[in-house]
Design a protein that fits this description.
Layout (H helix, E strand, L loop, with lengths): L1 E5 L2 E5 L8 H13 L2 H15 L3 H14 L4 H13 L3 H15 L6 H14 L3 H14 L4 H13 L3 H14 L4 H17 L11 H15 L4 H14 L5 H17 L7 H4 L6 H23 L6 H4 L7 E7 L8 H6 L2 H4 L4 E7 L7 H9 L3 E4 L5 H10 L4 E4 L10 H5 L4 E4 L14 E5 L14 E5 L8 H4 L12 H4 L6 E5 L8 H13 L3 E6 L5 H11 L7 E4 L4 H8 L4 E3 L8 H8 L4 E2 L10 H7 L4 H4 L4 H13 L1 H14 L8 H20 L7 E2 L5
Parallel strand pairs: 3-4, 3-6, 4-5, 6-7, 7-8, 8-9, 9-15, 10-11, 10-13, 11-12, 13-14
Antiparallel strand pairs: 1-2
Helix pairs in contact: 1-2, 1-4, 2-3, 3-4, 4-5, 5-6, 6-7, 6-8, 7-8, 8-9, 8-10, 9-10, 10-11, 11-12, 12-13, 24-30
Length: 699
């Protein structure tokens, strides 16, 4: 299967395997009627050898047939399929091109060979030439479902979702029962909801709702297709359509158990957080993904040059730290926005290298990070994983830092290939990578307390305050302005409204926490719930749920995302931020606390469910803002709302102290991370295996 990512979302597309030998069987029928017995005997044996995966023997047989009939395109295709099964992609491509040449471009049969050429080129990573092959197939025969479907999948690789949409629509019009075409259309619409926020497909109110229809269509055709089910659950979660939530989560858990029994990964690890998996299930799911990655590179790793830093255990020169970011430290990533000043705050005792794995977006954030790298900056978007691993060795990196993990633009193979003595997971994936090639995970004492250490394969590097460094003090000073630039009225609220806000992505909202919010709103009629409209359809579903719970629909207020220059000024009108227990606010949590909005959170067990605890501790509000259970959650909020002075005082406290709070002290938080890195190196230099390191509070 092929995992594709964009806009923080990862979806799964099923990959076609080696094509069946039906063409060879057909040629043998023809040959049996027209040729001598030797031809049929050799062909039957070659076919049997192929089916038994005796590929060298099969190849010899098909080559004998080629000598007898050198212009038979079916034999050339059979040889190509055999070479592909043996891993000889170039040889397979040569045979397919020869078969196409035998037929000629205008032969009505040649389209299928063009599709095979496209499939082969796509598997080899040559997407541009693969796209041309699919174009050629449709030029010859414009009504071929497989050509439209495969071209649509490839257009998704190019992020050309409108083109992909047209391809998949053509495919389902030609064959309304084709599950792969419906799946591709559902995925394309899922992305177009974000790419074209004002658009919608014909017959639907939004792309999200069209996506749900398409993916449900796949499930009606293939009820046991768990890959499509995972995509469907993601689509439903984004609009808060909970019609089948219990049923689907039960099926997702069963699917994970079945895959785990075969020692296989099931769900993209980042999205596994929203599927209701336990910490142990999350660990198992990630473990089998990392195992597959390790196995895929084990032979190539031997070719990566040794890293001199690995043997340099007593060196007194600077510790070399290499930060790797799959998205290239672009402004579109929270990593770049949060860490843009961190690199400037590293001490002179370390040397910073950065490996940007996506092209330059010209942003101020990326430029700031690049100028702070005193060791070196590597543009890695055009380098292979093997080349990057070799560069890390050449740079003699002591600690290689993965700031992406299993998220958007991941290139985890680099870390599996790397010869760096220490690999640290930091600020990217909110949980265990469950990988033998990742030695440490950066966290804090509330996010990863001792009683939950069994949920991680990494050793923990614990800092005193939040591990989640931010740049607010340097780059978001607009909220400290005394001149208010936006009013409550302009936002659609009354002055006496108590504004309860949750600016998290909507997929983080579960029915059980929404039920708590509705209880609060029934108890306190002056409250309004403020959400961001990440999906046009979500407001319809959530307002329907509110009405069913006895809360007027107009008490739910939705806004589109705000421009950055007024975002925090607008959000600062909220009286209390309601965190989501399933998946806490991370960077959003830092934003709202900097905007002087008190936060309430219910800690869970896994990493993603506890990040807000570390944030809250770092603004010294742990006694007021962490609750024990859902009942406590509701009762604490109701008490606060009935005593508005409490909310006012908490907001005032944050306003007055935010410049001095540990959460916003970038220099302090950076020093803690750096100390943890030096402790890791001391452990390594002593010749012992990685072990937990805990940084004392020196503030």
């Amino acid at each position: 299967r092929l995992v594709k990512g964009r806009n923080g979302m990862r979806v799964i597309v099923q990959r076609r395997g080696v094509a069946p030998m039906r063409l060879v069987a057909a040629l043998l029928v023809l040959a049996g009627a027209a040729a001598a017995g030797d031809f049929e005997r050799i062909g039957q044996q070659a076919l049997a050898d192929f089916n038994q995966q005796r590929y060298p023997s099969a190849l010899r047989g098909f080559q004998q047939l080629k000598q007898l009939q050198p212009d038979n395109h079916e034999i050339l295709v059979a040889i190509a399929q055999t070479l592909q099964a043996m891993g000889d992609m170039q040889g397979a491509l040569d045979e397919l091109q020869a078969a196409a040449g035998v037929l000629g471009h205008r032969n009505p049969k040649v389209w299928e060979i063009y599709v095979k050429i496209g499939d082969l080129l796509k598997a080899a990573g040559d997407y541009t030439q693969a796209l041309r092959a699919y174009d050629a197939a449709l030029d010859v025969s414009p009504n071929q479902v497989s050509a439209f479907t495969q071209r649509g999948i490839l257009n998704q690789e190019f992020d050309a979702y409108e083109k992909a949409e047209k391809d998949f629509e053509s495919a389902v019009q030609l064959d309304p029962t084709n599950p792969q075409a419906w799946s591709g259309l559902g995925i394309a619409w899922m992305y177009l909801e974000h790419a074209l926020p004002d658009g919608k497909p014909k017959g639907y109110d939004s792309y999200d709702e069209g996506s749900i229809f398409a993916l449900r269509r796949v499930m009606s055709l293939q009820p046991k297709d768990m890959v499509t089910l995972s995509n469907l659950v993601m689509a439903e979660n984004r609009v808060c359509d909970w019609s089948y939530k219990k049923e689907h989560e039960k099926a997702m858990k069963q699917a994970l158990r079945e895959r785990a029994s075969r020692k296989e990964n099931f769900a993209p690890p980042f999205h596994a957080f929203e599927f209701g998996y336990s910490p142990k299930e999350l660990l198992v799911n990630s473990k089998y993904l990392s195992k597959r990655i390790s196995e895929s590179v084990q032979h190539r790793r031997k070719l990566v040059p040794p890293n001199p830093a690995a043997a340099n255990l007593t060196s007194s020169h600077k510790l070399r730290i290499g930060y790797v970011n799959g998205a290239g430290f672009r402004n579109s990533t929270t990593t770049a926005r949060c860490l843009q000043s961190m690199f400037k705050h590293h001490s002179k005792t370390v040397e910073i290298f950065c490996y940007a794995l996506s092209s330059d977006d010209g942003s101020r954030e990326r430029s700031s990070i690049q100028t702070s790298c005193d060791g070196g900056w590597v543009e890695g978007s055009r380098l292979t994983d093997d080349e990057l691993a070799a560069q890390v060795s050449k740079d003699e990196i002591h600690i290689l830092v993965d700031t992406t993990g299993y998220t958007m633009k991941q290139r985890t193979e680099i870390f599996a290939l790397s010869r760096a003595p220490i690999v640290l997971s930091f600020h990217g994936f909110p949980g265990t990578m469950a990988a033998k090639f990742v030695h440490y995970l950066s966290s804090d004492r509330l996010t990863s307390p001792p009683e939950y250490q069994s949920y991680y394969t990494e050793k923990l590097a614990l800092v005193p305050y939040s591990y989640l460094i931010n740049d607010h003090k340097q780059s978001r000073q607009e909220v400290t302005s005394t001149t208010e630039q936006i009013t409550r009225t302009e936002l659609g609220f009354n002055e006496d409204d108590i504004i309860l806000a949750s600016f998290n992505q909507l997929y983080k909202i579960e029915p059980k926490i929404f039920k708590v919010w509705m209880r609060i709103m029934r108890e306190v009629p002056s409250t309004k719930l403020w959400l961001l409209n990440f999906s046009k359809a979500a407001s319809k579903y959530l307002r329907k749920e509110a009405a069913a719970a006895g809360v007027a629909k107009d008490r739910l207020v939705f806004h589109s995302k705000f421009p950055k220059d007024i975002e925090l000024l607008a959000k600062s009108h909220a009286d209390l931020f309601l965190d989501t227990p399933l998946f806490n606010a991370h960077t959003t949590g830092g934003d709202v606390l900097w905007a002087a909005i008190p936060m309430l959170s219910l800690p869970g067990e896994n990493f993603a469910q506890r990040v807000a605890s570390g944030l809250i501790r770092s603004v010294r509000m742990i006694n007021m803002s962490l609750v024990r259970d859902l009942d406590d959650y509701a009762e604490v909020v109701i008490r606060m709302c009935r005593r508005r002075r409490v909310l006012h005082d908490l907001k005032q406290q944050l306003r007055q102290e935010r410049q001095r709070l540990p959460l916003f002290a970038t220099n302090l938080l950076t020093s803690h991370v750096e100390i943890s890195m030096k402790m890791m190196w001391e452990v390594h230099a002593s010749g012992t295996k990685p072990r937990h390191v805990v940084v004392a509070d020196s503030s």
